[in-house]
Amino acid sequence: MKTMFLATLFAAILTSGVALAQANPPAVAEDFKPSVLNQPGQEYPQVNSQGYARFRIEAPQADSVRVSLGLGGRGGTRLTKSADGFFTGTTAGPMDEGFHYYHLTVDGGKFNDPGTLNYYGSTRWESGIEIPAHDQDFYALKDVPHGHVQQVLFPSRSTNTSRRAFVYTPPGYEKNTKTKYPVLYLQHGWGEDETAWSNQGRANLIMDNMIAEGKVKPFIIVMNYGMTNVIKPGAPGGLRSFKIEPFQTVLVDELIPYIDANFRTLANPSNRAMAGLSMGGFETHAITLNKPGVFGYYGLMSGGVYTPEEIKDRSKVKLIFLSSGSKENPDRVRKAATDLKAAGFHAVSYVSEGTAHEFQTWRRSLRELAPLLFRN
Predict the structure, then answer these.
(1) In the record, which residues are listed under signal peptide (predicted)?
(2) pLDDT tens digit string along 296-343?
């Protein structure tokens, strides 16, 4: 009884300490600056050195304005109306470093913030805000040779249309006309599209910087729209109703042959990788198991894990990369990599510290994955 009492008392002390800490949060630093993703000349939204975000919306006829942050718009910050017709408010606490989607709810209607740029996520164009990260240098725009991101339209008999993909070619691709390159097929997440990795993820800048530093072997990245079969946004089942077969046909039977025919690629499994974030990880997992002779390198970013038992042809697997944010399920990722290594696979795990299911996790994951690819 005494032990139980002491444990209860100790828990109560801890709880009261948390309550006090919550009741008396640190003062919000008034060093707010416009977000780097703002429209030209727009002062709001703003971010401060602690990671707080502040919003200011002109809506003189509105009664209520709320900011919903995060993929899918979870949570919210209610803004306060002033006599001049502006609604202003600051997040209750600091946000994770990196990129975040958000939208406004004005008198019950969903709108984007006119002060900032838009990004495709949550099956719609959302507003975007960037919380400066302590390690943002690896995806910063620098004075280094840059590759190109180009749109391609490729024929798809299975969907009876032309489909769009974006292709990153590394610096020097146009000049080194005899050089052939490995290819990474890099997939976006649920509700996003083929623009996500270069816009939100800054994949091209990550590659440019790492190539300039000699950290990676130059390779091509292909970014394709993954939601091939039609699923109505908000329909019952959501991701559970997604079928891999239509997308698998587009990727393996249509896009890869198009890329190999129109770009200077090393067209073999040892020089072909597939990776994806979230739903893109789900797609990667399914297709690499269904088509073991197509890709030699596998990467799941916040997109599940592999088990040794489900990989039937081990001889073709050069690398399995698994990652997540520390606020997701990092222990599962670490354990899966340990189990794979024990079974004889080259497996690597990575956990992004202080982030959740968000692009800072995936930017860092690409930074960790890229140097491991095509190092036969």
Answers:
(1) 1-21
(2) 999 999 999 999 999 988 888 999 999 999 999 999 999 999 999 999
Residues near 338 by Cβ (< 8 Å), separated by ≥ 6?
347, 349
Q: Token pair of 324, please?
A: 């997540």
Provide mean pLDDT across the span 270-283.
97
Task: Report the alpha-carbon distance of residue 104 to residue 101 in Å, rounded.
Answer: 11
Query: What is the pLDDT of the chain when averaged over all its residues?
Result: 89
**Closest C-alpha among 125, 104, 129 to residue 116:** 129
Run of H or E including 224: strand 220-224
Angstrom CA distances, 40 to 59, 98, 196, 206, stand at 20, 20, 21, 24
CATH architecture of 137-372: 3-Layer(aba) Sandwich (3.40)
CA 36, 42, 46, 49 torsion-angle sign: positive
Nearest to 355 by CA among 134, 32, 189: 134
Find the helix or strand (DSSP H, E) in which 208 lies.
helix 203-212
Q: What is the pLDDT of residues 218-270, one digit of tens each?
A: 999 999 999 865 444 445 445 667 789 999 999 999 999 999 999 999 999 99
Architecture in CATH of 33-132: Sandwich (2.60)
Picking from 310, 219, 317, the residue whose alpha carbon sits closest to that of residue 269 is 317
The DSSP bridge partners found for residue 349 are 322
pLDDT at 6 exceeding the cut of 60: no
CA dihedral (331, 335, 337, 338) in degrees, to 10, reads 140
DSSP string of 230-299? ---TT-TTGGGG--HHHHHIIIIIIIHHHHHHHS-B--SGGGEEEEEETHHHHHHHHHHHH-TTT-SEEE
DSSP string, 161-195: EEEEEEEEE-TTTTT-TT--B-EEEEE--TT--TT
pLDDT for residue 24 is more than 80: no
Q: Tell me if domain 33-132 and domain 137-372 are identical in fold.
A: no
Q: Does the model's pTM come out above 0.85?
A: yes
Q: Which two tokens stand for residue 1?
A: 């009884």
Ordered by start, the domain boundaries in the chain are 33-132, 137-372
